[in-house]
Amino acid sequence: ATATDWARIRADFPLLAREVHGKPLIYLDSANTAQKPASVIASVDDFYRWHNANVSRAVHTLGTEATDAYEGARRKLAAFFNVRADELVLCSGTTFALNLVAYSWALPRLQPGDAIVLTRMEHHANIVPWQLVAERTGATIKVADINAAGELDLDALYALLTPDVKLLSLTHVSNVLGTVNPVREICREARKRGIVTAIDGSQAAPHRPVDIAAIGCDFYAFTGHKMCGPTGTGALWARREHLAAMPPFIGGGEMIKEVRFEGTVFNDPPHKFEAGTPNIAGFVGLGAAVDYLSSLGMHNAEAREQELLRHATEELDKVEGLRIFGRAAEKAAVISFLVEGAHAHDLATLLDLEGVAIRSGHHCAHPLMHHFGVPATCRASFAFYNTHEEVEAFVAALRKVRRLLA
Ligand code: PMP
């Protein structure tokens, strides 16, 4: 795509035209949540304006339209990720999706003596559910380490995959380091040893083509709001045999076939796991987001973000006293950094006054911060709608606020 194409694509995102503190907004927090194109916003508006009804309940026209729209979003997601629609459990996001695996798959299966393997770079959403399961089952947690570049040490990881290990759960892409893990190879090694694999796809799905079938995992979780969709949307993909064997996590309406006080017959997967009225409008919006990303082409988005990453890394490396955390050979457009003599929060606060939105903090990855011996980092994260001019302006603003703090 040419520079003009990218300018046109950026113009699809109304919010990116706004100002903050009298300065043009430079939004470098897409790893936290992505901005939404006008088509996504319009689809949510259109749903509430013209089609609003509950799903799977009413025979009237609006009920059918709402159900078609909701199920249509499931089919779009399935095509986007190369999986079957009836293997996608729609839910509020990665956090819910991983908890569903923890409570419905792991909790009834794990026993004292069993182990779960995680990695040092996991988000709290892929740590805490396993701790809760471990506490209740007597299973233990083992942690795979990373090298100085922030990459998984694969030999060390495979050495951890002993016969007591029942589950390996790891992130596809680190939200702090940007590291892209070779999940296909890792899942192959796990499968050889009879170990079930869960992948946290939160930071991969929005930034690169993801073919879940090709990865060969057992579970894949992702979140819609990072993929240009509405908040409160996401899904768990699971192999059919797991979904069939798993008990429901949350009970209520929609997830049943027949309810008697003597006992209840559950609906078929994936509906068995979707109790209650879902975020219908949200999934209509996520369907529109998938349409948007598909027409953009995830290869194009990835190539654009890699250019921005290269440019930003080059410029940041010229800033004296700036340390980048994470130098993986395969890396997504996420840059965590610290500047000598400046607190992460102070930098982010002063950058905000310049119109630059970056995140500062622990990024829901306390163990990783602990590993690096820092309480927090600054994180600039990019999406295809960012520009090279923004990279320059961000680094110029960083130099300016750094002088203020010195
Ligand atoms: N895992 C990773 C790697 C993430 O970056 C995030 C979002 N910051 C999550 C899990 C949790 O996603 P959500 O809050 O949408 O459930």
UniProtKB/TrEMBL annotation:
Q: Which PANTHER family match?
A: CYSTEINE DESULFURASE (PTHR43586), CYSTEINE DESULFURASE 1, CHLOROPLASTIC (PTHR43586:SF8)
Q: Which Pfam families match?
A: Aminotran_5
Aminotransferase class V domain mapped to chain residues: 26-394
Give the catalysed reaction(s), semicolon-separated.
(sulfur carrier)-H + L-cysteine = (sulfur carrier)-SH + L-alanine
Function of the protein: Catalyzes the removal of elemental sulfur and selenium atoms from L-cysteine, L-cystine, L-selenocysteine, and L-selenocystine to produce L-alanine.
Keyword check for Zinc-finger: no
GO MF annotations, alphabetized: cysteine desulfurase activity; pyridoxal phosphate binding
Class in the EC hierarchy, top level: transferase
Q: Describe the family membership recorded for this protein in Swiss-Prot or TrEMBL.
A: Belongs to the class-V pyridoxal-phosphate-dependent aminotransferase family. Csd subfamily.
SUPFAM superfamilies registered for this protein in UniProt: PLP-dependent transferases (SSF53383)
Task: Name it.
Answer: Cysteine desulfurase
Report the EC number(s), separated by commas if there are several.
Answer: 2.8.1.7
The alphabetical list of record keywords is:
Pyridoxal phosphate, Transferase
Q: Which InterPro entries match?
A: Aminotrans_V_dom, Aminotrans_V_PyrdxlP_BS, Cys_dSase_SufS, Cysteine_dSase, PyrdxlP-dep_Trfase, PyrdxlP-dep_Trfase_major, PyrdxlP-dep_Trfase_small
Annotated GO biological process: cysteine metabolic process
User: What are its cofactors?
Assistant: pyridoxal 5'-phosphate
